[in-house]
Amino acid sequence: MTHPDELLALDRRHVWHPFTQAKTAPDSVLIRSGKGAVVYGADGKEYLDLVSSWWVNLHGHAHPYIADAIAEQAHKLEQVIFAGLTHEPAVRLAQRLTSLLPGDLNRVFYSDNGSTAVEVALKLALQYWRNLGRPERRRYLAFEGGYHGDTVGAMSVGVSSGFFAPFEDLLFEVDVLPFPETWEGDAAVAEKEARCLSALDAYLDRRGDETAAVIIEPLVQGAGGMRMCRAEFLQALVQKLRAAGGLVIFDEVMTGFGRTGDLFACLSAGVTPDLICLSKGLTAGFLPLAATVCRDPIYEAFLDTGFDKAFAHGHSFTANPLGCAAGLASLDLLMKEETRARIAAIEARHRKHMARLAHHPKVTRSRVTGTIAALNVGVEDSGYAAAIGPRLKAFFLENGLLLRPLGEVIYFLPPYCISDSQLDRSYDTLERALTTLNPA
Q: Quick check: pTM over 0.85?
């Protein structure tokens, strides 16, 4: 076995890590294995994975049921071109996904990650209107602080998140409206929602006939700081867009598969979008896979005797059989009564601890939606580059917690197998961090 120091030296020499300033970042932590909610470092330390390894892991690391499903599929078919061919795992996963989604969200287009799921939705929306003879409907509407991925289309609708300054000259124009961010005890939430909806009305009066689609992360904006909104706002948003004739895209790359309490945020909010983007938890973290699911009328607008109206888009690993097998196994686990009970228990635990921490002098804007809990640390600088972020991350790692604060925002988004005692210990460590680091 290669010595850890040698591997880290090779890592420093050859690997470019994401969202990292390599000049100032410490060495990466070398992880040997994982089990349940814990990953094990080559240094012998255990790290409780409170971010589900970038929000993908639902059921715990190296879950044997999913691993066995992938191994079984690998002995049958590992990959096959998906243009003109199909296979059982893809067909069954599409059927199961659509059976769990509301309304007539019945058509699944597979891709390979969250960014591409969003790209597919944006392209589908634009070509849908073109196929219907309405090419003037080409404007996209997004929300301040939203993040939708790192490809060009996804960056364009997520430009207000602040991550994409070097690429702004490449991005197409997107109209951005305010987002009614809210938190526990927010007395102004109804007023904020009214202002946002008033801005939406004014926009639709001017541009409604030109709007192809609105895209939003329903209930929780992820990378923008775990900013949360109410279901009432989403309901009003969808109603107004439908009245204006525009399409509604829900980016559920992060919120899907139980994160907001229900299976999908659209179910939690009681609304049906025209398109929904899914990834991350789709395979419970085992393999890259994504799906963009649309309503029947959108699919039907692409049907024609010629190729001109077809959707000319694809990926080499579209509907990879191993990924689809992982997705089916993950859904088996997700639909178990014990998993659903565990999701409810995590939310209850979050609410208990957040209610206590809400009174801490260094804590602002404590908030919970489903298995997602977040708070802001009371610091003067804010945003992803806030200086407190790296200090908090280092403190948590030293104390055996894998957390990646979003600037001054600390959040917990654990796998569903996390125990009450593990979660309690995490909150105790968080409270010690607030005291030890003395953010001000």
A: yes
